[in-house]
Design brief:
This protein is mainly alpha-helical. It contains seven helices and no strands.
């Protein structure tokens, strides 16, 4: 079973959250039955942008290393939470060994294709 099949659960793609936060915000509001103004959508989208989130990530400091706490306790962001490429589409495909790609293809290529990630599948596999 998947999260999308659970009644009352809103499932949003990473791509939507990364590339179109205003639409994602409107979807959340609609899911909750809340009317939302364009001004509020813009405010939320700015507050949740990648550049704003990056500022919330703890810096690589000696104090964090000594405390063995390398993440923000409120957001759970860790030092390497947002990739250096800001999660560019398809970038994940460059991170695996050939053996891992074969296993991932065998298990998930059908799902990736069904969810519209066909081009990323073909590039990786």
């Amino acid at each position: 079973s998947s999260f999308a099949e659970i009644p009352g659960v809103l499932v949003q793609s990473y791509d939507l959250l990364f590339h179109d936060m205003p639409t994602a915000t409107r979807q959340v509001a609609a899911h909750l039955g809340i009317e939302i103004t364009n001004a509020k959508v813009s405010m939320i989208a700015r507050a949740l942008s990648i550049s704003t989130q990056r500022k919330r990530i703890p810096s690589k400091s000696l104090a964090l290393w000594f405390s063995k706490r390398s993440f923000d306790s409120k957001t759970l962001f860790h030092q390497d939470h947002i990739s250096s490429t800001d999660g560019r589409d398809g970038d994940w495909a460059t991170q695996f060994t050939e053996e891992e790609i074969i296993k991932l293809h065998a298990r998930y290529s059908g799902w990736l294709t069904a969810k519209g990630y066909l081009s990323a599948c073909r590039a990786a596999f």
